[in-house]
Write a structure and sequence with these properties.
The complex is a heterodimer of chains A (about 500) and B (about 350). Chain A is of the alpha/beta class. Helix content of chain A is about 30%, strand content about 25%. In chain A, the strands form five sheets. Chain A has a six-stranded mixed beta sheet, sandwiched between helices. In chain A, strands 16-19-20-13-21-22 form a six-stranded mixed beta sheet, sandwiched between helices. In chain A, strands 2-1-4-5 form a four-stranded antiparallel beta sheet, covered by helices on one side. In chain A, helix 14 packs parallel to helix 15. The longest helix of chain A has 16 residues. Chain B is mostly helical. In chain B, helix 2 packs across helix 3. Chain B is globular. The mean pLDDT of chain B is about 90. Classes of the chains: A alpha/beta (about 500), B mainly alpha (about 350). Chains A and B meet through helix 10, helix 11 and strand 18 of A and helix 9 and helix 10 of B.
C-alpha cells in the first residue's frame, strides 16, 4: 500500500500511509484507538475506497470496489465483531455468500465438511463443522472466522484486535495458530494496541499515530517501551503507581444473587462478593459471563430474582436506580452511550443528570442555569474534559472526553461505592492513565470500588483483590499480590478454580 | 456545507411554504382559476379586516392548544395521536359540569367548565399512559384507537342520556350564558388568552423546570435517564396526560364558545389531528406553535373564502394544506441532513 490517504468528515484518518506485507510474515499494526489502523485495513479489504494512494498486490496495482473483489484476490479479514450467522452451522457459514457449484441447490454438505476438515487439520484449527455458531465459545467462533477466510482461499489474513475477546490461554492458542499459518506462507496483518502481544507474535511492527506511519521496525530490534513511545509520542509509564490499600468496613455486599439475562436465560447464578471501603476489587472474566448483568443488578437496572445487594448498610435489592444512587452508588457504565450520557444534551446538562432537581440547581421550581453552568465549568476544568464550551452537546465530544465527563459527574456526587465497568475501553493511553489515576485517588479517599473489566491487564494494574467471574458466579478470588496469571486464566475459562476462595470475599 | 445547512434550517419552513404555494398555484391554474386572484381572495378572507383577523385567531385556538400539548409530550418522545379523542372527552366533561350546575355564577362556572375540559382530556390520556407504563403497550396504537371510542361515546351520549329534552337533534342542552367563554376584546374570548398564556408556560416547563429536564432526558434516551435515577414512567405519564388535558381544554372551549352545546362529530374540524402537524412543523417550539396555528387557521378560512367567492373547490383547500405540511417537513428534513 502506497501513499494511502483517507478523509472522513473532520478527520484525516490516513495521511499518506505506506504499508508493506511480505509473504509468510506476521506484521503487527500498532496504534492507539483512532490512529487509523482499522481504516487502513478496511481500505485494503475493499470496504472503503482511498482518496489517494494505491494498493499493489505483487507488482500489480489493484482497485477493490468491495470486499468481494478483495476476497477474490485472496484477502481475508477477521473483524472485531464476528461476521457469522449465529443460527447457521459452521459449514453453512463457510458457504454463505459463495456461489454453489450445483445451482440452484446448495453445495453438497459432505464436500464442504471434507474441505473444512482438510483445512483445519492442515493448520491446527480444531472446529466441528456441524456445530451451530451460537453454541460455540468466543474463541471457537474466532477460529471459525479464520477458517472461513482460509476456506475462501485467503493468502493474506487481516485480524482486527483479535485478542480483545479472548482469555490468556485462548490468546496463546491463537498466536500459535498464526505462527503456523505464517510458516506455511500465509501473510498476516495483526492489528493491536497491546504491546506484549505484538512483541510475542509479530515479525515486524508498523506503528501508526494520528493517521501517519511513525515507523516500521523488525520486532527483534525493539522493545515494549520503545513501541509505546512511538505509539503515544512521549514516554509513558506502563505501570500504574499506587500505594497499598487500607481497606475498611464492607460497603458493597452482593449476596447469592440470581438474575436473568435480556434473553431471559439464567445469567447470574448465586453470585456473592464484598467490597470494602478503600479497596479496589477487580472482576476478571471473558465478556458475556455476567459482568453486564452484575453491573445492572447493583445499580437497580436489572431485577434480582434471589439474593440480596446491600450498599452502605442499605438494602438496595430491586430498588430503583434513584434509591441506589441515594444509597451511595456511583456508576461508570460499560455502555457509555446507551447508559452514561445524552448526546443531544449539553455538557453542563449531562453533568447534572441525576442532581438537577436538588436545591443546588433548582430554585423556586426553576432550573438555575447559572449554577449548572458554573458547576460544569469547574468539573470540566478539574477533570480536564476537552470541550469548546459547557454548552456543547455531549455527543460532540471524543470518546475519552465523554468518559471523563461521565467520571466527573459520578465523582461529583461523592459516591461511597463506585462501580467502574470497562472504564477505559476504547480510550487512548493518556485518557486511560487519567481515569486510572482518578479511580485510585477515589480508593485512597475511602471509596469502595468494584472494577469490571474484560481487559485483564487493567484488572491486574488496578485491583487490590481480583475475583474471576465465570458463568454468573465468582469462580475464585485472590489477593493481587498472590495473583497467578496462569491460574486466573484457567478460572476465566471455567477450569480449575482454586481450593481457597470458592467462598468469595473475606 | 454543514454551516450552510445549519444556517438554512430556520429558513426551511418558510421556503417550504413558498414552494407549497407555488405548486398550489399550478393546481389552481390547472383547475382554470387565476392563482393570483385566488390567493388574493384567500389573504383577504383570512386577514382582510378586523372581523376576519378575529375569526382566524379564534380558529387558531384549538389548533394551538393541541399543538402546545404535543410540543411538550413529543419532547418525551410520546406520540399522542389521541388529541381528537381527548378533545371530545374534554368537551364532554365540561358540558357535564355546565349542564349540571346551570345556576352557578360565571366567576365560578367558567373555571369549573374549564377544569372539566382539562380533567376529561387528561383522564382520557391517562388510559394510554397506564397501558404504556404498566403494560408496555405502544401509545401510538392506544391513543389512536381511543379516538374512535371517544367520538362514538359522545355520539351516543348526545342521542341518549345527555340529549336536550327540548330538542330532536343529537345535541346536549345549551350552555347557560354564565358557562360560556366570556369575550374580552371584540370577539376574542377568554380561551384565546388562556392559549396565549400557556405559550410561555410550556416553554418554561420544557426548558426551565426539572420536570421538563426529565421529559427531555427520557425523550433523548430513556435508558440513560433511568440509569441517572429519573423514572421514565413518571415522565411518560405526565407527557401523555398533559397533552391530553390541553386537547380536552381545546374541545371544551370550542363547545362552550362556538357551539354552546355538545354535539356529535360536528364539534371538531379534525383539530386533534391537525394539532399534531402544527407541533411538528413548529419543531416543538411553543412560540412557533402560535404562528403555525394561525397560519393553518388562515389557510382554512382563506380557502373557505375562495370557495364561496372564487369558486375554488373545497378539496383544493385540503390539498394545499397537505402540500404545506409535506413540503415544510420535507424542507426541514433536507436542511437537517447536513448536520
Amino acid at each position: 500500500m502506497r501513499g494511502i490517504v483517507k478523509h472522513f468528515p473532520g478527520v484525516l484518518a490516513n495521511d499518506h500511509v505506506d504499508f508493506e506485507l511480505a509473504r509468510g510474515e506476521i506484521h503487527a499494526l500498532l496504534g492507539e484507538n483512532g490512529a487509523g489502523k482499522t481504516t487502513l485495513m478496511n481500505i485494503l479489504y475493499g470496504l472503503y475506497r482511498p482518496d489517494a494512494g494505491e494498493i499493489l498486490l505483487g507488482e500489480q496495482a489493484v482497485h477493490f470496489r468491495s470486499a468481494f473483489d478483495a476476497i477474490a484476490r485472496g484477502l481475508g479479514m477477521v473483524h472485531q465483531h464476528f461476521m457469522l450467522v449465529n443460527s447457521f452451522s459452521v459449514a453453512e457459514n463457510m458457504t454463505l455468500g459463495q456461489p454453489s457449484p450445483r445451482q440452484p441447490l446448495l453445495e453438497d454438505p459432505n464436500t464442504v465438511r471434507r474441505r473444512i476438515a482438510e483445512i483445519s487439520n492442515q493448520h491446527g484449527l480444531r472446529v466441528d463443522p456441524t456445530a451451530v455458531v451460537w453454541q460455540l465459545s468466543v474463541g471457537e467462533q474466532q477460529r471459525v472466522e479464520i477458517l472461513k477466510a482460509l476456506y475462501r482461499g485467503a493468502e493474506v489474513l487481516i485480524l482486527d484486535e483479535p485478542t480483545a475477546v479472548l482469555t490468556p490461554q485462548e490468546t496463546d492458542e491463537l498466536l500459535a495458530i498464526l505462527r503456523s499459518l505464517a510458516g506455511q506462507g500465509k501473510s498476516i496483518v495483526f492489528i493491536s494496541h497491546k504491546l506484549h502481544e505484538v512483541m510475542a507474535a509479530s515479525d515486524r511492527v508498523t506503528v501508526l499515530r494520528d493517521g501517519r506511519v511513525v515507523g516500521t521496525v523488525p520486532t527483534r530490534e525493539t522493545d515494549e517501551r520503545a513501541l509505546a513511545k512511538m505509539m503515544v509520542g512521549r514516554d509513558v509509564t506502563l505501570a500504574v503507581a499506587k500505594g497499598s490499600a487500607r481497606p475498611g468496613e464492607v460497603l458493597l455486599q452482593v449476596d447469592g444473587v440470581f438474575a436473568d439475562s435480556d434473553r431471559e436465560l439464567p445469567c447470574l447464578q448465586g453470585l456473592s462478593l464484598k467490597v470494602r471501603a478503600g479497596e479496589i476489587v477487580g472482576i476478571a472474566g471473558v465478556a458475556g459471563n455476567g459482568q453486564t448483568e452484575l453491573e445492572e443488578a447493583i445499580v437497580g437496572l436489572r431485577p434480582v430474582k434471589r439474593g440480596r445487594i446491600r450498599v452502605c448498610s442499605t438494602d438496595v435489592t430491586n430498588q430503583s436506580p434513584k434509591t441506589c444512587i441515594q444509597a451511595g452508588i456511583g456508576l461508570i457504565p460499560s455502555d457509555r452511550y446507551g447508559m452514561g450520557m445524552l448526546p443531544d444534551f449539553s455538557v453542563a446538562d449531562n453533568l447534572v443528570l441525576s442532581t438537577h432537581a436538588g436545591p443546588r440547581f433548582t430554585r423556586r421550581g426553576l432550573l438555575n442555569r447559572g449554577a449548572i453552568r458554573a458547576h460544569a465549568a469547574k468539573l470540566v476544568h478539574d477533570f480536564d474534559v476537552r470541550t469548546p464550551s459547557v454548552d456543547t452537546p455531549g455527543g460532540a465530544l471524543s470518546g475519552g472526553n465523554i468518559q471523563k465527563m461521565i467520571l466527573a459527574r459520578e465523582l461529583s456526587g461523592q459516591p461511597r461505592v463506585l462501580i467502574a465497568a470497562q472504564p477505559t475501553r476504547g480510550l487512548d493511553v493518556s485518557a486511560t492513565e487519567f481515569i486510572h489515576r482518578q479511580i485510585i485517588a477515589q480508593r485512597d479517599t475511602g471509596v469502595a470500588i468494584l472494577l469490571l473489566s474484560t481487559e485483564l491487564d487493567e484488572v491486574l494494574a488496578l485491583s487490590d483483590r481480583i475475583a474471576v467471574i465465570y458463568e454468573g458466579q465468582i469462580a475464585g478470588m485472590v489477593d493481587r499480590a498472590e495473583a497467578d496469571l496462569h491460574e486466573i486464566g484457567l478460572m476465566m475459562a471455567g477450569r480449575g478454580g482454586p481450593a481457597r476462595g470458592a467462598e468469595a470475599g473475606p | 456545507m454543514r454551516a450552510a445547512a445549519q444556517a438554512a434550517r430556520p429558513a426551511a419552513p418558510v421556503l417550504g411554504v413558498l414552494a407549497a404555494l407555488l405548486i398550489g398555484a399550478l393546481l389552481l391554474a390547472l383547475a382554470g382559476i387565476d392563482p393570483l386572484m385566488a390567493y388574493g381572495v384567500m389573504l383577504r378572507g383570512a386577514f382582510g379586516g378586523s372581523r376576519q383577523v378575529q375569526e382566524t385567531i379564534l380558529k387558531a385556538v384549538p389548533l394551538a392548544l393541541v399543538g402546545l400539548g404535543l410540543s411538550v409530550s413529543l419532547r418525551a418522545r410520546m406520540w399522542n395521536i389521541g388529541g381528537e379523542g381527548q378533545y371530545f372527552i374534554g368537551a364532554l366533561f365540561g358540558t357535564m359540569v355546565a349542564v349540571t350546575f346551570p345556576g352557578w355564577p360565571a366567576w365560578l362556572l367558567v373555571p369549573a367548565v374549564l377544569a372539566g375540559g382539562l380533567l376529561g382530556g387528561g383522564l382520557w390520556a391517562a388510559i394510554p399512559a397506564w397501558l404504556r407504563t404498566r403494560r408496555g403497550m405502544n401509545e401510538i396504537i392506544s391513543t389512536l384507537m381511543l379516538n374512535y371510542i371517544a367520538v362514538l361515546l359522545v355520539e351516543y351520549l348526545v342521542r341518549g342520556p345527555l340529549q336536550d329534552p327540548a330538542s330532536y337533534l343529537p345535541e346536549s342542552a345549551q350552555f347557560a350564558p354564565a358557562a360560556r367563554m366570556p369575550a374580552l376584546i371584540g370577539r376574542l374570548h377568554l380561551g384565546v388568552f388562556i392559549a396565549l398564556a400557556l405559550v410561555p408556560l410550556c416553554y418554561l416547563l420544557i426548558w426551565r423546570t426539572p420536570l421538563g429536564f426529565k421529559l427531555r432526558a427520557v425523550g433523548s434516551r430513556a435508558r440513560v435517564a433511568r440509569t441517572a435515577g429519573i423514572d421514565p414512567a413518571a415522565s411518560i405519564a405526565f407527557a401523555l396526560i398533559f397533552s391530553g388535558a390541553l386537547a380536552g381544554l381545546a374541545g371544551l372551549i370550542e363547545v362552550s364558545y362556538l357551539h354552546t352545546r355538545l354535539k356529535g362529530q360536528l364539534i371538531s374540524g379534525g383539530y386533534g389531528f391537525s394539532g399534531i402537524l402544527v407541533a411538528l412543523i413548529s419543531r416543538l417550539n411553543p412560540f412557533a406553535v402560535v404562528i403555525v396555528a394561525i397560519f393553518f387557521a388562515a389557510l382554512t378560512i382563506g380557502m373557505d373564502a375562495t370557495h364561496s367567492l372564487a369558486q375554488v373547490p373545497a378539496t383544493l383547500a385540503d390539498a394545499l394544506q397537505a402540500l404545506v405540511v409535506l413540503l415544510v417537513l420535507g424542507a426541514d428534513a433536507l436542511a437537517r441532513r447536513g448536520e
